[in-house]
Amino acid sequence: MTGILSTRPALAVDEATLQAAQQEGSVVFYSSSPSELLDQLAQAFSAKYPGIKAEYYRAGSSQVYERLIAEQDANRVNGDLIHVSDVATITELKDAGRLAPYDSLEYAAYDPQYVDPDKNWFVARGHFLNIAYNPARVAEGEAPQTLRDLAKPEFKAKVGIMDVRLAGGAYTWQYTVWKLYGPEFFAEMAANDPKLFPGHGPINDRIISGELSTGVSLNYMTDEAILEKGAPIKALFPADGAPMIWSPVGIVDKAPHPNAAKVFIDFLASAEGQEIYNSQYSYSMRPDVPTKEGMVPLNEINILETPIDDMIARQREVQEAVRKAWGY
């Protein structure tokens, strides 16, 4: 990683903010991203700014959210930044006044749609829901090509999806199929007896082991398994459109290390930070950061439109339909 960082221009960091950050001495990052990615980000940041130690707490989007809420309500905030794979969650935090705005100079490199208009967050990482399958259990010509195909009788009790009671990536899938096929699809899917999991990692693992034939996974998991490990798994982007999961990050209101948080945001939004994200099979929203070799280029993916405002406005309606279909 050192070689990559050294080829990039200096970050747009305000010197006074940097000096104040070094006096604070540390920054704490709450995130739902994989630990391997968080390790790389923390190590690279601390190496670049030796006076600031980067630490993180890693859990699912719901758990990270709940921890922050509990800390803020108790006036014992430990985290400086929050990073979740759920734009509805980050928007809820913003609307409740739980985030602090910061207009990083690095945001100039981004399309405005990936930066909150009030500068409370930016999309630090994008990835896609895809369809994964085990080639020993599903022939290539018989693999599901669309999200609706997962409800076909031949895949009964052989499909893995995230627990329908969860948020984050689970809700992105729910909203996607609701928008494409209407609420009646949930009854079709529930009748097909899919196996429910608390995250996409267990789904990926069970497809590789052969316990599941197919399921909804994430590109960064399948790309790593295929390109690095040669695992018995294949993946495709749904023909009916691949939903992109935005992973926004923002500074926490009343953060204990507010200046270090700003420097960390600058780092995450910079080309240096985004190259680290992309090294772990993410898709950066910065045009000057290339996709990792072997991955499908962003401009070749049929990205399904998932308007943020509509996703948020429809969340209760969609999730009530899901729970009804599953009897929750």
From TrEMBL:
Protein's UniProt keywords contain Signal: yes
Alphabetized SUPFAM superfamilies for the sequence: Periplasmic binding protein-like II (SSF53850)
Keywords (A to Z) from UniProt: Signal
Pfam families membership: SBP_bac_11
Entry-linked Gene3D superfamilies: Periplasmic binding protein-like II
Protein name as annotated: Iron(III) transport system substrate-binding protein
Species for this entry: Aquamicrobium ahrensii
Native organism taxonomy: Bacteria, Pseudomonadati, Pseudomonadota, Alphaproteobacteria, Hyphomicrobiales
